[in-house]
Specification:
The chain is of the alpha/beta class. It has one domain: Glycerol-3-phosphate (1)-acyltransferase (3-Layer(aba) Sandwich). Helix content is 42%, strand content 16%. The chain has nine helices and eight strands. Strands 4-3-5-2-6-7-1-8 form an eight-stranded mixed β-sheet, with helices on both faces. Helix 1 crosses helix 8 and helix 2 crosses helix 3. The radius of gyration is 18 Å and the shape is globular.
Length: 270
């Protein structure tokens, strides 16, 4: 893997990055205020929480000028598994359609953005505690039973995009117990200036705020999500992990000479 570039690289534009960071924070605060107003009236079911997060993420990407493209159809229910490249993945998937995410527990403590994740119904898991898997699976099962699309990144961490890491099978148990459909997707990015691996992908020892500022300084970011054409059901979580990992790698063109990023029908999120 190539070492991440420093903020001193010519493609880093601090004024642009700072301006967009202000826009992102303002939009997040706006979303939180809207949630509080909705929540003050009544309890919000998981579907309404997911729709609120969908609206907030679509608004954020539109204001930041980040374009999204989808090839195939976002599933209407069940478990959706995908490769994981960046924290930006959350905004992209949510902007495409209402959904619920499974995330590491550290995200909950992130100022503002962790609050939004909690408000949106995110299932948090402590990956350092194997006993926490049962609780996470129970929460995922509940969300699936309510008709939500649950998005899982089974690699367990983000990567630089050159490969799809082996999928961890433990959290497939919720789909098996719920007899839920399992769909697969791959996400990729394109930059006009800079390196996707270093400026968009968030991996290794990268620090969040410097990376976020560098990402926001990019002139144009395009995100593409490719969805598998079929859904599957499984009765064995190890088989589910292996099969979907192979599908996602195929969708991502890993191991194929695809010529890199392929354009599709682009649209601004919103």
């Amino acid at each position: 893997m190539t070492a991440p570039r420093d903020l001193s690289t010519p493609s880093f534009r601090p004024l642009r990055g700072t301006r967009r960071l202000f826009i992102l924070v303002f939009t997040a605060i706006q979303g939180c205020v809207q949630f509080v107003c909705l929540r003050a009236r009544r309890q919000l079911p998981i579907a309404e929480r997911a729709h609120w997060l969908h609206t907030s993420c679509a608004r954020a990407l539109q204001r930041l000028g980040i374009e999204t493209g989808a090839e195939g159809n976002f599933p209407s229910h069940g478990l959706l598994v995908a490769n994981h490249l960046s924290y930006l993945d959350i905004l992209v998937f949510s902007a495409l359609s209402p959904c619920v995410f499974v995330s590491k527990k550290e995200v909950r403590s992130w100022p503002l953005f962790g609050w939004m994740a909690s408000m949106g119904g995110t299932v948090f898991i402590d990956r350092a505690r194997s006993t926490d898997t049962h609780r996470a699976n129970s929460e995922m099962t509940q969300a699936l039973s309510q008709g939500a699309v649950v998005v899982l990144f089974p690699e367990g961490t983000s990567s630089d995009g050159t490969t799809v890491l082996p999928f961890r099978p433990a959290l497939f148990e919720a789909a098996i117990k719920s007899d839920a459909d399992v769909s697969s997707a791959s996400i990729s990015y394109h930059l006009e200036d800079g390196s996707v691996s270093n400026d968009i992908c968030y991996w290794g020892s990268m620090k969040f705020l410097p990376h976020l500022l560098r990402l926001l300084s990019k002139r144009k970011i395009r995100a593409r999500v490719r969805f598998s054409a079929e859904t599957m059901k499984f009765d064995d979580r190890k088989l589910a992990a292996q099969t979907t990992q192979e599908i996602v790698a195929s969708l991502a063109g890993i191991g194929e000479k695809t010529g890199g990023f392929m354009d599709c029908g682009w649209q601004s999120a919103g």
